[in-house]
Write a structure and sequence with these properties.
The protein is built from twelve helices and 48 strands. With 883 residues, the chain is mainly β. This is Peptidase C-terminal archaeal/bacterial domain-containing protein.
């Protein structure tokens, strides 16, 4: 069973892994946020009293069901025994059946799809032999995952789910070690994220605090429970102070905050203004520093750069420092590498100047009971200086904060990522596996001098220079990683002119270039581009690239065959970019749906730009007319978010729905009644299509109708189509026909064999309009338009497997027994395919016929032509009849 990896990644965020694979880790904080909660936490109601669970009926590895249920209760009890918290747990009875690899999907559907469907159960699934985990993740070391998965109208959890990998017990882990897995999983179930206080030091040998000050290294028994990796022998079933502190913050006893102290502040970039989220912040007590440490991630409660660390001992002495999260996926995106060094909080000396704010100097913090010490801010020290070579090598980057705000395509940025590969990106680094056009258009906003595999570590240098009105990055004689050579160019960002309706101007000035391929220009990034923008001739348009004022991307793609860089000693000046707005707003409700006419495509940036914006407060409705007997197809061709699609009739009743599974995606609806319909597009998990999704950005949609219905054909599949007439073929009358995905029709039974004369002659009666290894599941449509005296089966833009050029063709069956093959565009590959008809069942081979040599052939018996390497396909744009 293959699961959708994009949604499985959501599960990994709440998963525990065995030993050392580098993946998800969190600092102590909430697993999810809820804006309706006074602290923005997602937590169970009523102080967590009687959090429900329903244990499975099967075993867990070598544990019997009774033993598994007892160990589950013992794991929950570890959390319930925290005397500073009020949460308790209630076994609400077993699940109605034993969950296994054949029936587990309903229990995981909310996590996979973002749905919010309640079933009255909070399953604790015992995957006895690990088969479910193999189906979900393949060969992995994921031991368990858990989370609340169903919420009330205020976003408060009402149901949860946990899956435990019993295949790991005895094979890899002892029963006691697996108890730690359960305690960890039930921390997630209760609302805790992963935490990192000692784990990175134990697993990776990371220094416990900023060098050269060190507390030594923690021992195994000082590892926090909510660290994302299980370390055998570490005793992670025992709760750590970090685990207890945030659990008590979620479900505090009445006097918890009165008896404990807390620290809060903001982590700032070296400019002293920009808040930085994704930084691990640790408060470590000087007495028993490994057992008495509590952490948070800046921004983990929804406020950029802000952190709060609670549960601290009043009167004790603590030091506070920032720590880079080393690996993994995070609910709060980790900031790595840090744009500065790890450092202690240094009181009045805290600044971006390392001569004043020595990163190793610290100020002691002494918590006060019932008091939150605020304003404990840390400003990162500036470590990258103008004019000095940047520490870049192949596939690396640095982040530098700008002396002015920079606006690109309506997106505002305070910093820039300087990538070794000859480009600047905004919002995040620009590292990719392949430097090709799809990545250029779909990635972060990017300005590329020459986007190529450049490596400053092999020669040359990359430096930046800055002034009040400009910021420049210079690649000086930088070679390619493999080809060598020397490439020089400068990208300059300019301060925005007062009153300008456009974004900041920028320029690229080229010196000598030896690289012959790459991409030069800019892209607004995946939240703005259509992904189908085309290459320009920059040297012909130099020096002023005025079309940047109205284009989502202007670039020259030198990676294309036959192209080579021609920009040596060329200056390119881009006067700015503009913000692109949804052309159809306001259309956020059914009643304000905007009228469109089918077919409709929103690829045109200037006239039909469509987008979900702002994030968390938009859904788009469109209204159109459709006729009975048609099928409406909605395709989302590109976008930077996971979409939710809904179709409504004229009365507002939802008649079709597409659960979120990423882009590209499509919705198909067979129209029963002529009239007006409304299409809604939102972002996951907004399954109610009210506008509260978690994604945003541009999307390109294609909405059209076809006559008849769309067949649900995938690679190697078949579907029976009922006819409205009796069709005479090869001496029999047929009331239905099987449409096979490989481009042929059979009668009496489906047939998925590959094209050959032998299979044609020996198989069922067959009409082979284009018999080949086609894959309609990857691209294109297959439709059936059945009328009272005709039936037309059309393959539209269907490629061979694996994906090749698309093929379009149709076959029409008439009540009088005649047949017509109608061909449009066909591919030019030479893989085997066969065209013709046969009675099958051991028919005599008449030999191959040149079908392009005549337009009409007999409808009885066998007539065919084989195509391949020795006989090129020659049927494009032709019509062949059999009567």
């Amino acid at each position: 069973m293959r699961m959708h990896t994009g949604k499985v990644s959501n599960i990994v965020l709440a998963a525990l892994l065995w030993c050392l694979p580098l993946t998800a880790s969190f600092a102590g904080g909430p697993l999810k946020l809820n804006p309706n909660d006074p602290d923005n936490f997602s937590r169970w109601p009523n102080g967590g009293v009687n959090i429900p669970y329903n244990p499975d009926l099967g075993g867990l590895g070598p544990l019997s069901n009774d033993e598994a249920v007892q160990q589950t209760a013992a794991a929950f009890q570890r959390w319930q025994d925290i005397d500073t918290a009020t949460a308790t747990y209630s076994n609400n009875g077993p699940l109605p059946f034993d969950v296994n690899v054949t029936n587990f999907l309903p229990f995981i559907k909310n996590l996979l799809t973002g749905n919010n469907n309640a079933d009255g159960l909070s399953p604790i699934v015992y995957d006895e032999d690990g088969a479910i985990f193999t189906a979900l993740f393949g060969a992995s070391r994921i031991l368990g995952f858990a989370a609340a998965d169903t919420f009330d109208s205020d976003g408060v959890p009402i149901e949860g789910v946990a899956f435990l990998n019993g295949g790991a017990i005895n094979r890899d882990l002892s029963r006691e070690e697996f108890l730690a897995v359960q305690v960890h999983a039930f921390g997630h179930y209760s609302g805790l994220a992963h935490s990192v206080v000692n784990g990175q030091s134990i697993v990776f040998g990371d220094a416990v605090s900023p060098a050269p000050i060190s507390f030594g290294l923690p021992s195994l028994d000082e590892l926090e429970t909510m660290y994302p990796f299980l370390i055998p022998g570490a005793g992670q079933a025992r709760l750590h102070a970090d685990d207890i502190a945030f659990y008590s913050t979620l479900y505090p006893v009445p006097d918890f905050f009165a008896r404990r102290g807390s620290i809060s502040g903001t982590i700032y970039a070296s400019d002293g203004v920009t808040p930085l989220s994704g930084v691990n912040v640790v408060a470590r007590r000087l007495f028993r520093p490994f057992l008495n440490a509590v952490s948070a991630i800046s921004g983990d409660r929804g406020v950029p750069g802000a952190y709060t660390i609670g549960g601290l001992t009043p009167g004790a002495r603590y030091v506070l420092y920032i720590d880079e999260l080393m690996a993994g996926s995070f609910s709060t995106t980790p900031l790595r590498p840090l744009p500065g060094v790890e450092e202690f909080y240094n009181g009045a000396n805290e600044s971006n100047d390392s001569f004043i704010d020595n990163p190793t100097e610290r100020e002691l913090l002494i918590p006060v009971a019932g008091t939150e010490q605020t304003g404990i801010d840390i400003t990162l020290n500036a470590t990258l200086l103008p004019g000095e070579p940047l520490p870049l090598d192949d596939r690396s980057f640095v982040q530098v904060f700008l002396p002015f705000a920079f606006t690109l395509c309506g997106q505002d940025f305070s910093s820039v990522f300087i990538n070794a590969d000859g480009s600047l990106t905004f919002g995040r680094d620009g590292l990719v596996a392949f430097r090709l056009l799809p990545e250029f258009l779909a990635g972060p906003p990017r300005i590329a001098g020459l986007w190529k595999d450049l490596d400053p570590a092999q020669g040359g240098s990359v430096i930046f220079t800055t002034g009040p009105d400009r910021f420049s990055v210079h690649w000086i004689n930088v070679p390619e990683s493999i080809q060598g050579g020397a490439n020089s160019f400068t990208i300059t960002l300019k301060r925005k002119l007062p009153g300008s309706p456009f974004g900041n101007a920028f320029s690229v000035t080229y010196g000598s270039l030896t690289a012959e391929a790459g991409i030069s220009g800019y892209s607004c990034g995946g939240k703005v581009t259509s992904r189908v923008e085309t290459s320009s001739d920059l040297s012909a348009e130099a020096p002023f690239i005025f079309k940047s004022l109205f284009k989502t991307a202007v670039f020259e793609d030198f990676t294309r065959a036959g192209s080579a860089t021609d920009l040596i000693d060329t200056p390119l000046f881009y006067p700015g970019t503009r913000r692109f707005r949804d052309r159809f707003e306001p259309n956020d409700t059914f009643s304000t749906a905007r009228r469109i006419h089918l077919p409709f495509n929103s690829e045109d940036t200037n006239r039909r730009y469509t987008a979900i914006e702002p994030r968390g407060d938009d859904v788009d409705y469109y209204r159109f007319h459709a006729r009975a007997g048609q099928s409406v197809i909605v395709e989302l061709l590109s976008g930077s978010f996971t979409p939710v699609l809904g179709l409504f009739d004229a009365s507002g009743n939802r008649v079709a729905f597409k659960e979120p599974f990423g882009i590209p995606t499509s919705l198909v609806y067979e129209v029963p009644d002529s009239g007006t319909y409304a299409l809604a597009i939102g972002a996951s998990p907004d399954t109610e299509l009210t506008g509260n999704g978690l994604g945003d950005g541009r999307y390109v949609m294609n909405v059209f109708s076809v006559e008849g219905r769309v067949l649900n054909l995938r690679d190697e599949s078949s579907e029976e189509v009922e006819l409205d007439f009796s069709f005479p073929f090869q001496g029999q009358n047929w009331d239905s026909v099987f449409v096979n995905s490989n481009g042929n029709l059979t009668f009496g039974s489906p047939d998925l064999s590959f094209p050959s004369a032998g299979n044609l002659l020996s198989g069922p009666p067959r009409i082979a309009q284009f018999w080949a290894d086609l894959d309609p599941g990857s691209q294109g449509l297959v439709t059936a338009n059945v009328q009272s005296a005709t039936a037309t089966i059309t393959f539209s833009n269907v490629p061979l497997f694996p994906i090749t050029q698309p093929n379009t063709f149709a076959v029409t069956l008439n009540a009088n027994g005649s047949i017509a093959f109608d061909y449009g565009d066909l591919d030019d590959v030479t893989t085997p395919r066969l065209v013709g008809i046969s009675e099958g069942g051991g028919a005599v081979d008449p030999g191959s016929t040149d079908l392009s040599g005549a337009a009409n052939f007999p409808v009885s018996g066998t007539t065919y032509e084989e195509f391949g390497s020795n006989n090129a396909l020659d049927l494009e744009d032709t019509l062949i009849t059999f009567d």
